[in-house]
Amino acid sequence: MLQRTTTSSTDLLIRFLHIVIMLSFTGAYLTGDAEEWHQIHMAFGYTLGISLILRILWQFGAPRLAHTQPSGPSRRLQVIKPFVQRYWAQPQQWLSPTFLKAASSSLFQLSILGIFLLLPLTVLAGFLTDYTYSHTLKEIHELFANLFLASVLLHLTALTLNSVLLKKWLAKRMFWGAESHSWFTLFAALFSLGVLIAFWFFYLS
Q1: pLDDT of 133-190, one tens digit each?
Q2: If we measure between CA atoms, which residue out of 77, 85, 105, 93 comes closest to residue 166?
C-alpha cells in the first residue's frame, strides 16, 4: 500500500532525474568533440534541459501534490551560510574533525548549486552554438561544460569526504530508499520517463 511522506527530499522522481542528469552529462561530455556523434551529443544536451525543467516543476509541485519536500537553493544556503559565519575567522579550527565535516557538507551543497546554475547555461550555449555556428559561442559552451565538470568533481569529492567522516555512504539515498511513495510521485516518475522516451524517439527518427 502506498503511503505519503512529509519529510523525504529524495523521492522516486528526484532519484530518477538525478540518474538521467548524471548519465546525460557524461554522454554529452564524451561525445562533445566527435563530429560523427554530434546528433547524439545534442540529444544528451536536450535531455539535460528537459530534465532540468521537470526538476524545477517538481520543486514547486511536490510539496502540494506528492507531500515531499525536495531541497531547493534556500535549504542548501542554510547549510553553507552558518559554516562560513562560524569558521571564516577561525583558521585554528580548519583541521578539526568538526570543521572537516561541516566543510564537506557545505562544499557538497555548493557543488549542487553550481551544477544547477551551470546546467541551463551549458545547454543554452550549446543550442545557440548549434543554431548559429558561432565560434565564440562554442568556446563559451565549452567553458560552461568544463565548469559543469568541475562542479561534478567537487560534488563527488565532497560526497566521498563527508561519507568517510560520517562513516556512512551517503550516495545510496540518491539511488534507492525504503520509504513508500504517493501515487502522484509514481505517476510523475512514469510521466517523466515517457517524456524522455518520446523525445529520443522523435529526435532520432
Answers
A1: 999 999 999 999 999 999 999 999 999 888 888 777 766 777 766 566 788 889 999 9
A2: 105
Predicted confidence at residue 92, as pLDDT, reads 64
Closest CA to 101 of 118, 87, 112: 87
CA angle 124, 200, 156 (to 5 degrees): 60
- Please give the full DSSP string across 52-71, using - where no structure is assigned: HHHHHHHHHHIIIII-----
Quote the DSSP letter at residue 63: I
pTM: 0.85
How far is it, in rounded angstroms, from Cα 203 to Cα 193?
Answer: 15
Evaluated on CA atoms 176, 179, 185, 190, the torsion sign reads positive
Q: Alpha carbon of 165 to those of 22, 77, 94, 157, 192: distances in Å?
A: 25, 21, 15, 12, 35
pLDDT at 2: 41
